[in-house]
Design a protein that fits this description.
This protein is mostly helical. The protein has 2 domains: 71 residues, Arc Repressor Mutant, subunit A (Orthogonal Bundle); 145 residues, GntR ligand-binding domain-like (Four Helix Bundle (Hemerythrin (Met), subunit A)). Helices cover 74% and strands 4% of the residues. The protein is built from 11 helices and 3 strands. It has a 3-stranded antiparallel β-sheet. Helix 1 packs across helix 3 and helix 5 runs antiparallel to helix 9. The longest helix has 25 residues.
């Protein structure tokens, strides 16, 4: 593999994330046709990494290639989103169950510390910081499950749904507190070595949060 090929692949991953972020932020809307040259100009790159990024996004269902028409941002229906959410919630719940069984005590203590670290963001209603720490918390649980296949599967399912959750508008003040309290249940179940309780607490948390994350889109559709 040449340095140029490696560089293009690295850029493709970056462009893939930026396109997904722009969809989540409402700058690129479902149903929009995507032109390689326009995206290359938008992100100040050549068309080669853009082309690869679009292929990657097509694999996750974020965009779709329509023969003789081009590449379009997929319009995720409510039914399709619920299907993705159901699978994601089950897999996230499985990581919590396995984490309760497999995490070393040192890892459990680190998880508890991470949960406590989120409290200032809750008290200050600091959404961006809460989101950042939330990713870390869930990542620790994913890693604690010690199942590489499950870890990768969750990444893929999140990639399919994340661009449509309008994440930067979340969480609201009330949502921050609810999420923190739900995390408390998950973390304490893991620390208490209660795998089934951890499973059900995580599944309920992810499913509810996923429905809330779609609310801005629902409001847009009703407007």
């Amino acid at each position: 593999m040449t340095d140029k090929t490696t560089r293009n692949q690295t850029l493709a991953v970056t462009i893939q994330k930026r396109i997904a972020d722009d969809i989540a932020g409402g700058m690129l809307t479902p149903g929009t046709r995507l032109e390689e040259k326009d995206l290359a100009a938008r992100y100040s790159v050549s068309r080669t990494p853009v082309r690869e990024a679009l292929r990657q996004l097509a694999a996750t269902g974020t965009v779709e290639f329509r023969p003789r028409h081009g590449v379009f941002i997929a319009d995720l229906s409510r039914h399709r989103w619920r299907e993705i959410l159901e699978v994601t919630a089950e897999m996230e719940a499985a990581t919590a169950r396995y984490a309760a069984e497999r995490m070393a005590e040192m890892e459990v203590q680190a998880l508890l510390a991470q949960h406590r670290r989120m409290k200032p963001a809750v008290d200050a209603f600091h959404g961006a910081e809460f989101d950042k720490q939330n990713v870390v918390l869930h990542g620790m649980i994913h890693a604690g499950a010690k199942n590489a296949v499950l870890f990768k599967s969750i990444e893929q399912m999140r990639a399919r749904g994340l661009p449509y959750t309008r994440a930067e508008f979340m969480p609201r003040k009330d949502e921050i507190l609810v999420s923190f309290n739900e995390h408390e249940g998950v973390v304490q179940a893991i620390a208490g070595r209660q795998p089934e309780l951890a499973f059900h607490a995580m599944r309920a948390h992810v499913f509810r949060a996923g429905l809330v994350a779609q609310e801005p889109k629902a409001q847009d559709e009703a407007a």
